[in-house]
Amino acid sequence: MNSMRMSSVLMRMIAILILFGPVSVFAEDPGDPARGKTVFKLCSTCHQVGDTAKNAFGPVLNNVVGRKAGSYPGYSYSPSLQEANKKGLTWTEDLIFQWLHGPSDFVKDYLKKPDAASKMPIMVADPQQRRDVIAYLSTLTHQSPHQDTAGHDMSMMPAVSKDEKDPVDKLPRVKLELVDPPFLPKHTQTTSDEPKVVEVELTVMEKKWVLDDEGTEIVALTYNGSIPAPAIVVHEGDYVELTLKNPSTNMMEHNIDLHAVTGKLGGAAITTVTPGNEAVMRFKATKTGTFLYHCAPEGVMTPYHVTHGMTGVIVVLPRQGLTDDEGKPLSYDRAYYIGENEFYVPRDAKGNFKQYKFSGEDLNDWVEAMRGLVPSHIVFNGRVGALTGKGAMKAKVGERVLFIHSQGNRATQPHLIGGHADYVWETGSFASPPLKDVQTWFIRGGAAGAALYTFRQPGLYVYLNHNLIEAVVLGAAGHVMVEGEWDHDLLKSVYHGPLKK
Ligand code: HEC
Ligand SMILES: [Cu+2]
Q: Does domain 176-501 correspond to CATH entry 2.60.40.420?
């Protein structure tokens, strides 16, 4: 402990010397561009360089030495770096050296503002690595700039002319009050109303999140603070006006891609917002079914955000409600939303889970862990055991319960131990006839599906992913507690005791 504190004091002193010392740290050791190219792998999850470089999670770094800070075309910088740009900050090798020691500390210092923060969530502790990577970046001068707009461009979207009235503006508006899963927001199963505009608001929250009883903690990325994100329920033909807010307390850029949306990467291309911003889009729900939604910030950040919790479901009900395989109406007495997510918590050399302080800090380790496709946790509703005990789903004998199940990234195979699915919309499409009397159904990765079951017996049911390793070892299991009268005709215990000879 003591030696750790000592070394951190020492580090600070060194940092102060480096920050305010008059001599360039490059005077004695200019750094090695070849080694720096290897160090750059750390940066390349967020930054691109070279002729075809595009802005990604971070801006293109061609010509960055000598470039004005916060100036690469088409990139949306944090408010702090934009302010530094206005104050005239220009990147020198020494300044990037300081920047890499802690981007947010750097802008706090530079702007003399304690609440300034950068979007770049990592730092490089080793001064040698910093010198080397900067030496490498210095070799990348005189690259032709390449304006990136992909993923962030609104240009292809013709603006609605001002004097042209939008007929949708005349439709009635309602605000959908979202609730935490496994519950669904209040809704009607059928409707004879005219289509309406349903207002939905999602706020991204980057927050500490405990995944299991051992206290394994990550900095999760969430919509509205829950994993999975809240279920949205509308009817076919309704319009959804979705507001996505990214508070300035967050570190990262986020957006939303809903599989119910037509065009613009499911909405991701017109909702990408940096901290301190919000975006509003309106889409028409044209297809019925249960659709996944998720964050899709580009490149490796998409699986990174999805495996940090940013998945949810939007249910688009037919206006006349659900129907069976013969087209006859089906209704439900209760509905639950089970969001299955897998996590790739990085481990240290001893095999223990590593802990991180702020969002994005785990990026490189997490990407490395994802590469192996071996999740550390596969859970329902954000943590091992979330849907057991007090969190168990409830039902009564005779009730028809709709189970909506999503998985953003991997296939899963739900099963209700001791029960069945009377009807399953496996692909999530309500336009296709449901399968009947299914034991174990299949939810594709990147989708959501639904199953309807009438409980006939009371007691405890286990609802799980019937990859039993994923259920029992990794966590993908929940409970349904059912009240009611026992039906001996369906099942009775005939004998239970010692061998009768
Ligand atoms: C986790 C993603 C991530 C990683 C990894 C990362 N950066 Fe960044 N970097 C960013 C983001 C985001 C910004 C924009 C910062 C802002 O707007 O506040 C940025 C900005 C920068 C800038 C300022 C650019 C400008 O146009 O003003 C430099 C220089 C930089 N990064 C260098 C590096 C180097 C060198 C590495 C590797 C050692 C690295 N970054 C690793 C995300 C990252
Ligand atoms: Cu996100």
A: yes
Q: Tell me which of 35, 45, 46 to substitute to probe ligand 1's pocket, judged by most ligand atoms within 8 Å of the beta carbon.
A: 46
Q: What are the φ and ψ backbone dihedral angles of 104, each rounded to 5 degrees?
A: -70, -40
> In this structure, what token pair is assigned to residue 247?
């508070």
Of 194, 195, 197, 198, nearest in space to 186 by CA: 198
* 7/20 Cα distance (integer angstroms): 20
pTM for the whole thing?
Answer: 0.76
42 CB less than 6 Å from ligand 1? Answer: yes
What topology does CATH give the domain 2-138? Cytochrome Bc1 Complex; Chain D, domain 2 (1.10.760)
Q: Where are the domains of the chain?
A: 2-138, 176-501
* pLDDT at 12 (0 to 100): 57
**190-199 mean pLDDT:** 96
310 C-alpha vs ligand 2 centroid, how far in Å? 6
Angle between helices 103-111 and 79-86 (to 10 degrees): 40
Mutate to test the pocket of ligand 1, among 43, 76, 364 (most ligand atoms within 8 A of CB): 43
Q: Which two tokens stand for residue 241?
A: 């006006």
Q: What is the mean pLDDT of residues 233-248?
A: 96
Torsion of CA 16, 22, 26, 29, to 10 degrees: -80
Using a 6 Å cutoff on CB, does residue 229 contact ligand 1? no
pLDDT, mean of residues 244-253: 90
pLDDT tens across 389-435, in order? 999 999 999 999 999 999 999 999 999 999 999 999 999 999 999 99
pLDDT at 468: 97
